[in-house]
Amino acid sequence: QQQVKQSPQSLIVQKGGISIINCAYENTAFDYFPWYQQFPGKGPALLIAIRPDVSEKKEGRFTISFNKSAKQFSLHIMDSQPGDSATYFCAARNDYKLSFGAGTTVTVRA
Amino acid sequence: NAGVTQTPKFQVLKTGQSMTLQCAQDMNHEYMSWYRQDPGMGLRLIHYSVGAGITDQGEVPNGYNVSRSTTEDFPLRLLSAAPSQTSVYFCASTMDRNTEAFFGQGTRLTVV
């Protein structure tokens, strides 16, 4: 049973549009919430991360929104570009161990 | 600057064969882990190690063994391969519990 639930499974967005991916968790012991980006044939790479004492973090076109009371967090990709086409995983960490969501495949149409 | 190196990149095994997936990191990280990635399931933790000589089971450890004799290396052994172990395997390392995990490029394993 996955400890982190991620949706949607896939999404298609036009160039310049906004992509939104949502995740939810139950385990309150999680203390670090990273997002990973993965291109075909490659390993996941850290995109952006947030700690539960912060409600929002922005890095360039990527923003994490975090709702501790609802145990939900989301990734917003602004001004989506074709190079953003990839699979995105949310994750949550307890001690050293990462629990991953199922992944969202994002396709950006030019 | 190699980071996390996994070998081989691809492997086909017959049911019942054994093999070792290699993982090495050159960042002097204490924590290393193995994940498997299956469609629609994300990455699931198989085994992890918090330092040389210390290993523990993750979420899906059955059918896999690990050992950690050095800080740099963390091999994953399949003792008797089964078709259910067909997957993409990723090794990761972390300096400590407050820093990011770095992943290798993966090993795509097919068991026939």
Q: Total strand count of chain B, please? A: 11
Profile the largest sheet of chain B: 7 strands, mixed
Give Rg of chain A in angstroms: 13 Å
Point out poorly predicted stretches of chain B. Answer: none
Q: In whole angstroms, how far apart are the ends of chain B?
A: 36 Å
Order of helices and strands of chain A: EEEEEEEEEEE
Beta-strand content bin of chain A: over 45%
Query: How much is the radius of gyration of chain B in Å?
Result: 13 Å
Summarize the structure.
Chain A has 110 residues and is an all-beta fold. Chain A has strands at 4-7, 10-14, 19-25, 33-38, 45-50, 56-59, 62-67, 72-77, 86-94, 97-100, 104-109.
Structure description:
The complex is a heterodimer of chains A (110) and B (112). In chain A, the strands form two sheets. In chain A, strands 2, 4, 5, 9, 10 and 11 form a six-stranded mixed β-sheet that branches. Helix content of chain A is 0%, strand content 57%. With 110 residues, chain A is mainly beta. With 112 residues, chain B is mainly beta. Chain B is built from no helices and eleven strands. In chain B, strands 2, 4, 5, 6, 9, 10 and 11 form a seven-stranded mixed β-sheet that branches. The radius of gyration of chain B is 13 Å and the shape is globular. Chain B starts with a strand and ends with a strand. The relative contact order of chain B is 0.33. At the A-B interface, β5 and β10 of A face β4, β5 and β9 of B.
